[in-house]
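Protein RGF1 INDUCIBLE TRANSCRIPTION FACTOR 1-like, Raphanus sativus. Tokens?
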Amino acid sequence: MMREGHEEEQMMMMVARKPAWLEGLMAETFFSSCGIHESRRKSEKNVFCLLCCLSVCPHCLSSHRSHPLLQVRRYVYHDVVRLSDLEKLIDCSYIQPYTINGAKVIFINQRPQSRAKVSSNVCFTCDRILQEPFNFCSLSCKVDYLLYQGDDLSSILYRINESDFTFSSLRMDGHDQLGEISTMEEDTDDIMLMSDQWEEGNNSNKDKRKKKKETNYSPGIVLSLGSRRKGAPHRAPFS
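Tokens:
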């Protein structure tokens, strides 16, 4: 009982140290039907109001036109944010970005993994395989790790510039569902995701790629879909 009480107290302290918008973004449920406009078309909640700290649908935007708004997209049933948007709010260094349909994105939360894999470089929080030199697979993994270490998040948070998140900057053209136009299979145990660094290398080494395909080696990096929580981090970040 004492151990459970200590863990609950620690979690409450971690939550208290997150700004409201960050806590809301990581905890909010996106792409569910809006309770107010559920009878209307395109009523999925895919925009996060940084002032009200809640998700809204396109039909709700008229009530938030003057608020800073962050568009959330979805890839294979998981929420992502464009790196170019998120890095205006928080330091995204050492979080592995992914290139999906030409857009650089960051996963908001860690994803479940089907089985453990062996690698020399894994996420400090959930053990997901990463490419060098990244230490985290998602925004929440970095934030939770820093809080677990007792670090102050103020050193990585930026002041919100409302002019960067205006209503007019949102794209309501159906491109928020990245998974729908992806050629990757959604229900496989593993997903091949290509980071920006690997993509650049592949573009300049097409001949090498062809040779590798003829062998048992598969280009790119395999990221499993599972997640397990480590007890205590075993190394310091940003090494």
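The first strand starts at residue 47 and ends at 49.
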